[in-house]
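sry for the spam today, last one i promise. C-alpha cells for design, 276 residues
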C-alpha cells in the first residue's frame, strides 16, 4: 500500500512538473502570465459562445425585419393590383358604354322616325332561358305587346308577348311561334324565318319558302323585309346551310342568328317607326 501510494505521488508530481514546464514554455512564447492563461482558458469558450449567440440574435433580427418589410411590400403590391384591376373594369365599362352610345346614335341617325325604349333583362324562362325573357320596362314606358326587340346594332332579338306596368315578356327569335318576313341581301330572295328548334337543330333559324332555283351561299346575310311589326333591314342572321324541303318544290336555308340571345343583358324596344 505504501509502495502504491508512493507511485501515485510520483505520477502526480511528474504530471505537475510537466504541466508547469508546458505553461512556462507557452508563457514565454506568448508573453502571458500563468493567471492570464488560466483566465483566458476559462473565458474563451464563454466568449465564443456569447459571440455565436449575438450573431444568431442579429441574424434573427435581420430575418424578422426583412420578413416585415417583404410583408409590407406584398400588401402594397396587392393594393396596387386591386386598384389596377378596378381601373381596368371601369375602363372596360366605359368602353362598352361608349360603344353602346355610338351604336344608338347610329341607329337613330339612320332611322330618325324610330322611337326606342332601352331596357335591361331581369329574368329568363326557367324552361328555356334562350327563348323567353323578362325586361324591366312595361306599359308605363309605352311598351305594348307585338313590338319588336332589337340590339343597339340593329339585330333582331324577338317580339314582346306580354306586358305589365313595369315589365314585359319577350319571345326571342329562336321561338318557333314567331315568323319573320326576311330577305337574303345578296340575291333578294324572300322567305319566312322561324325558330330552328322545330327542325331539330337548337340555336339555328330556318328560312322557308325560297324558290327552288335560288342560289344560296354560306354567310349570306338575311335581313327583315319590313312589316307592321319589324322595321326593314334589321339583321336576322347568316346562312350556314341550305336544302330542299319535303315537297322538293321549294328550298330552305338554315341561319345562325345575328345575335347570341343568351349573352344579352339589355335590349331596345321599337315603340314606333315609319313602316312606309
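last one done:
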Amino acid at each position: 500500500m505504501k509502495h502504491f501510494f508512493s507511485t501515485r505521488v510520483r505520477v502526480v508530481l511528474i504530471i505537475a512538473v510537466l504541466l508547469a514546464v508546458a505553461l512556462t514554455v507557452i508563457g514565454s512564447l506568448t508573453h502571458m502570465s500563468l493567471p492570464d492563461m488560466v483566465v483566458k482558458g476559462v473565458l474563451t469558450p464563454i466568449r465564443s459562445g456569447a459571440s455565436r449567440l449575438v450573431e444568431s440574435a442579429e441574424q434573427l433580427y435581420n430575418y424578422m425585419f426583412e420578413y416585415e418589410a417583404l410583408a409590407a411590400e406584398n400588401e402594397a403590391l396587392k393594393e396596387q393590383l386591386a386598384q389596377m384591376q378596378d381601373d381596368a373594369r371601369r375602363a372596360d365599362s366605359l368602353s362598352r358604354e361608349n360603344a353602346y352610345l355610338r351604336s344608338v346614335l347610329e341607329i337613330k341617325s339612320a332611322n330618325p322616325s324610330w322611337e326606342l325604349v332601352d331596357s335591361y333583362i331581369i329574368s329568363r324562362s326557367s324552361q328555356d332561358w334562350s327563348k323567353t325573357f323578362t325586361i324591366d320596362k312595361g306599359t308605363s314606358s309605352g311598351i305594348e305587346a307585338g313590338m319588336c326587340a332589337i340590339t343597339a346594332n340593329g339585330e333582331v332579338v324577338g317580339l314582346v308577348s306580354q306586358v305589365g306596368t313595369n315589365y314585359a315578356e319577350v319571345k326571342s327569335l329562336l321561338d318557333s311561334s314567331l315568323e319573320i318576313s326576311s330577305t337574303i341581301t345578296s340575291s333578294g330572295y324572300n322567305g319566312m324565318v322561324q325558330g330552328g328548334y322545330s327542325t331539330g337543330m337548337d340555336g339555328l333559324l330556318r328560312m322557308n319558302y325560297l324558290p327552288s332555283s335560288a342560289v344560296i351561299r354560306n354567310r349570306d346575310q338575311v335581313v327583315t323585309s319590313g312589316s307592321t311589326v319589324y322595321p326593314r333591314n334589321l339583321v336576322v342572321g347568316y346562312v350556314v346551310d341550305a336544302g330542299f324541303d319535303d315537297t322538293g318544290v321549294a328550298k330552305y336555308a338554315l341561319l345562325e342568328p345575328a345575335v347570341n340571345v343568351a349573352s344579352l343583358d339589355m335590349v331596345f324596344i321599337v315603340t314606333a317607326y315609319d313602316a312606309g
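The chain is about 40% helix and 30% strand. ok im logging off now
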